[in-house]
Write a structure and sequence with these properties.
With 142 residues, the protein is mostly helical. It has 7 helices and no strands. The chain folds into 2 domains: 62 residues, no CATH class; 57 residues, no CATH class.
């Protein structure tokens, strides 16, 4: 997501914490903050972390066996951006179909997130851009 590209981990995490703080206080939110607050509200299990002073510094490594909540929420935002712009082409229809089948748009996003994370990991590992064709094939297989 381009709007996150120039921020380090702490800045990104602060963005989540600040969006949630403003949301809870009923303060006006910037559009991105509103999107972040919605994703946080859908993930109540992450709220204690976001309201904890230690939340900013915690490490979430595969070896630690804990999902990175910031990464998870960021992937939700990425999927929603892809759906809203229908890029890659066809992803909006895939989401609609999967949401109908599951009866839950959020559950559909969770399934899609797994494929997005896989595509990003493979691209990073290979030092190239994600393969949109393969990504869409994997999404369609859901």
């Amino acid at each position: 997501m381009p709007f996150f590209a120039d921020q380090n981990r702490e800045q990104l995490r602060r963005l989540y914490l600040e969006a949630w703080r403003k949301y809870r206080a009923g303060a006006a939110l910037e559009p991105l903050e509103g999107q972040i607050a919605v994703v946080i509200a859908e993930h109540g299990e992450y709220v204690p972390l976001l309201e904890s002073p230690e939340g900013l510094a915690q490490e979430f490594t595969p070896e630690g066996g804990r999902e990175n909540p910031f990464l998870h929420m960021g992937l939700h935002l990425a999927i929603r951006e892809q759906i809203s712009t229908d890029r890659p082409a066809g992803i909006g229809a895939i989401h609609t179909s999967l949401s109908r089948r599951l009866g839950d748009a959020h559950a559909a996003e969770h399934m899609m997130i797994e494929r997005l994370a896989e595509a990003l990991w493979e691209a990073q590992r290979a030092g190239r851009m994600p393969d949109e064709r393969l990504y869409l094939e994997r999404l369609r297989a859901l």
